[in-house]
Amino acid sequence: MQKIHATTVVGILHNGEIALGADGQATMGNTIAKSNVRKVRSLMNGKVLAGFAGSTADAFTLIERFEEKLNAYGGNLKRAAIELAKEWRTDRYLRRLEAMLIVASKEDLLVISGTGDVLEPDHQIAAIGSGSMFAQSAAVALKKHAPQLTAEEMVRESLHIAADICIYTNHNLVVETIR
């Protein structure tokens, strides 16, 4: 049985604004299973954003666990991310989950993986998923050459560029921001 997966998620921290966005496509093998999946969530009353790539059910489980960690550690994003990554790597059940997360607050942007990684990306740009390298390349160029744009505008344009190139990415975007 094939899993539903494939997406592009990108986050940019720019001029005191964080924007996190994703396309809406979910694929099963080489078929589009759904075109309007919501892969970005606002947590902690809008103070934290989380986006996922990978198996949808696995990602929902991880976002729920991350939110529990946020609550347990008083909204401390880095601490919650590290604790989730440790649990994800060592727990027999969680270890089998196939997804990645980008989490963000107004101050921090992190990528969390099941291998125990919690990465603070260069240039304050994070991207995950099948179209991540396309979106990340576009985001780096926009941040460098069009700094007058907002973080939200950069995320939207990066995702549109990725959707023009990556067959697993579409133009149905969801973008959340924290200003």
* Helix-strand string: EEEEEEEHHEEEEHHE
Q: Label the structural class.
A: alpha+beta
In the CATH hierarchy, what is the class? Answer: Alpha Beta
How does the major sheet shape up? 5 strands, antiparallel
> Could you give the order of strands across the largest sheet?
6-7-8-9-10
Number of strands: 12
Distance between the termini: 42 Å
Identify low-pLDDT runs: none
In percent, how much strand structure appears in the residues? 25-35%
Considering DSSP H and I runs of 4 or more, what fraction of the residues is helical? 25-40%
CATH architecture classification name: 4-Layer Sandwich
Shape: globular
What is the arithmetic mean of pLDDT?
92
Number of discrete domains: 1
Round the Cα radius of gyration to an integer and report it.
Answer: 15 Å
The CATH topology name reads Glutamine Phosphoribosylpyrophosphate, subunit 1, domain 1
The CATH superfamily appears as Aminohydrolase, N-terminal nucleophile (Ntn) domain
Function: Protease subunit of a proteasome-like degradation complex believed to be a general protein degrading machinery.
EC number: 3.4.25.2
Subunit structure: A double ring-shaped homohexamer of HslV is capped on each side by a ring-shaped HslU homohexamer. The assembly of the HslU/HslV complex is dependent on binding of ATP.
GO biological process, one term: proteolysis involved in protein catabolic process
